[in-house]
Amino acid sequence: MTSLPAGWTPAADTLAGRTILVTGATGGLGRASALACARAGATVVLLGRKVSTLEKLYDEIEALGAPKPAIYPMNLEGATPRDFEELADTIERECGALHGVVHAAAHFAGLQPATEIKPEEWMRVLQVNLNAPFLLTQALIPLLKAQDDASVVFVLDDERRVRKSFWGAYGVAKAALAGMVAILHDETDNSSLRVQALLPAPMRTALRRMAYFGENTLEQPEPDASAQAVTYLLSADGRPARGGVLDLRPTTN
User: Fold this and answer.
1) Where are the transmembrane segments (predicted)?
2) Of 19, 82, 202, 237, which is least surrounded by CB within 10 A?
3) What is the CATH number of the domain that holds 155?
4) Spans of the chain below 70 pLDDT
């Protein structure tokens, strides 16, 4: 586990000259990460399901005076390896380079006993939370390794919770994702590509509202602090966190 350096905040040029792809860009952490990256000077490629929501975020980023973002509509539930290859080709053609990926997309179907999970839902959860991050990263690795410094950020979840009863396919996917991060790091440790992971603190998102229906999610902070940590991992300052898990959880949680 690693920690965010005390007092670290991104400057307006922290990610200047970098192109960053954010999946799940209109979700809680994805949206906050896209805005944080844009404020730090990155050209952000926004990947999400709904064009209208992506366009709204596009307008928000433009209003910041940040580099002009790009929109790439994609539903990860049905995406194929060829779809990810086409995405990589499009980024190379339209953007010329890629310096970072934030895997912020997530799908959570709610808490339920494993024996009651429908096969289709099991496959859907694993597709969005595990298969898609792997296949997308695999397709983008040549672009990323072409840079002097590049980073892929995977978002994990609290294993103290999601490896317990009723977390089902989501818990399995997040456990497997942590293993995949370790393997990819080991395979890329001597390259210009950094594989890193983020373990956010509790935050105000739709996913948390579904999972913790007994709490008032509005009492949790917005995802902004976690998004700032994403910016750190994508920046040159985040090199010491290579291969590690940046743990933002409060010690008392």
Assistant:
1) none
2) 82
3) 3.40.50.720
4) 252-253
